[in-house]
Specification:
By secondary structure, the protein is mainly β. The protein has helices spanning 15-19, 122-127; strands spanning 24-26, 32-35, 44-53, 64-70, 78-81, 86-89, 92-93, 95-97, 100-102, 110-112, 115-119, 131-138, 143-152, 156-160, 167-169, 173-179, 189-194, 201-203, 205-208, 211-215, 224-234, 237-241, 245-261.
């Protein structure tokens, strides 16, 4: 079963909120100022854990990534990390994006967020126990520490009941369990894209805790499809020091390549 690489991306719209972490945001005059972590302490730190299992491009850049981004001050200059800033994710080095003024898209007064990110191995996380995520930024002036409770976990939707997820029947409903089962995401959304189709259709989803029931409508074309399930949940902050506040979300989407049959 082959889907063209040019077919539309089926990511649930909620993922666009997480994309705001790296958005270009208007700032005062497009000026860049190198700032220490102490000088950034009045800003907020926004994080996002993206866990996107895409059948078309499973190794897409940023598909399995944790990002922590400083907010942009509407009245101040665009921040840029000083050269001595370092960052770790559970003790492992993170990638720094210094930030600063940007003219991308012709926006001469835009700021690119100062941020750090860590690309994780989904297979490794699937074998490892659930743990807190501990992010630490340091320079000569200050230490910033963020702890997100039980966030280091490989999320997945697991097919439940009789049959297999590669062959679904029209007019039937199917259950999928979100794991870790201790979490309740939501709401869960389901999109169904027909092979060669131009746009995905939205399926009816009934959610009971971490179990979602997806209905395959009677009029669904009998053909090859990709079913995408997606949901997010708020990250639970256990510690936040060195900044004004910390907040963020965890997002997971997962593709099932399947046939819809009578």
């Amino acid at each position: 079963m082959t889907f063209p690489a040019s077919s539309p991306r089926r990511t649930v719209s909620r993922f666009t909120v997480l994309g705001a972490l790296v958005a270009l945001t208007g700032c005062s005059g497009g000026e860049t100022k190198v700032m220490t972590l102490a000088e950034l302490s009045d800003r907020s730190l926004v994080f996002a854990l993206a866990d996107v299992d895409d059948a078309e491009t499973p190794d897409a850049q940023g598909a399995h990534r944790f990002t922590a981004s400083y907010t942009v001050s509407p009245d101040g200059p665009c921040s840029r990390f000083a050269d001595d800033v370092t960052a770790t994710f559970n003790g492992q080095p993170m990638t720094l994006v210094p930030g600063g003024a940007s003219d991308v898209g012709g926006r001469s007064e835009a700021c690119e967020n100062s941020r750090v990110y860590f690309n994780f191995d989904p297979a490794a996380w699937g074998r490892e126990p659930v743990e807190d995520i501990v992010v630490q930024l340091q320079d000569a002036s200050s230490t910033v520490r963020l702890v997100v409770k039980n966030a280091k976990a490989k999320r997945k939707f697991t097919f439940q009941g009789e049959g297999t997820p590669d062959k679904l029947r029209v007019g039937q409903s199917y259950d999928f369990l979100w794991e870790p089962s201790t979490e309740v995401p939501g709401p869960v959304e389901a999109l169904l894209l027909r092979e060669g189709g131009r746009a995905p259709g939205v399926l009816s989803v009934t959610q009971n805790g971490n179990t979602s029931t997806v209905a395959i409508a009677a009029g669904t074309p009998q053909a090859n499809h990709i079913l995408t399930l997606g949901a997010d949940l708020e990250g639970v902050v256990g510690e936040c020091t060195g900044v004004a506040s910390c907040s963020g979300a965890i997002y997971h989407s997962q593709d099932y390549v399947l046939s819809v049959v009578p």
